[in-house]
């Protein structure tokens, strides 16, 4: 079991982030648990890539000297699974905001859904959602969005390595995507709806892999805390 020195020297911890937790909350839960267990005044700790509160799945948390590995880990290829709901859009491209427009889905077929994925494979230009934590003029985009301000957001180059449709039960479409750093799956949902001549928003998202790390090997923050209390040696 991990000792105080292990955490200070550096650990890579795989956490399965629960729904409605922010990434910051998950990091904080581990930080307090480690500090409390070993009587530490402070410990370096951070995550390698944010997950939205409405997403679940793999969060890599680094402690101690391993916080230096964060930039390298953030750059790894990621895999996500989830659900797009066709026929409606929201300003945030997910369930954070209410539906603002509805569209017909009668013209959409299984074949057109499968065909639409091909337009996103490879290197593409993607516009990040207005409801994101990116900064413009020192303010986060979601703050400007909530103030109702019009913002010109520049597109960025991302890469979609795999895009597979795993279930079609309209208006829901399940997917698996393997993509580069900086990809917004919410933007992919929005753009996917447009390609189909309809609308779409993201209603479920789970990060399953980051590089060689798999969510199957991750534990929830609460289980981590319980294990630490029971097993750790000081």
TrEMBL record:
It catalyses: uridine(55) in tRNA = pseudouridine(55) in tRNA. Residues 36-185 form the Pseudouridine synthase II N-terminal domain. The keyword tRNA-binding does not apply. It comes from the Bacteria. GO terms for molecular function: tRNA pseudouridine(55) synthase activity. The active site is at residue 52. Responsible for synthesis of pseudouridine from uracil-55 in the psi GC loop of transfer RNAs. This is tRNA pseudouridine synthase B.
